[in-house]
Amino acid sequence: MKKVRTSKTDCDDKKLEGRYANYFKVGHNASEFLFDFGQFYSENGEGDIYIRIVTSPVYAKSFLEVLRQSVEQYERSFGRILEKNK
Description:
26% helix, DUF3467
């Protein structure tokens, strides 16, 4: 049973469900941030949102920093990530 160490939390990866996401939407109000994750299907122009994460502004900012650090580490290891055409 493999365990993944993330900060101060142990995760049993057999209990985690992995989902592919190529669509992201972020919203917020005065007290919380909402992160929607889903999959967009280009062949029919439709998509599905399958999870919404709701968190406080403090944790949203922490998430931003962890993601920034992770992308920087990835680019040091594998090269620059090309941005999708907007």
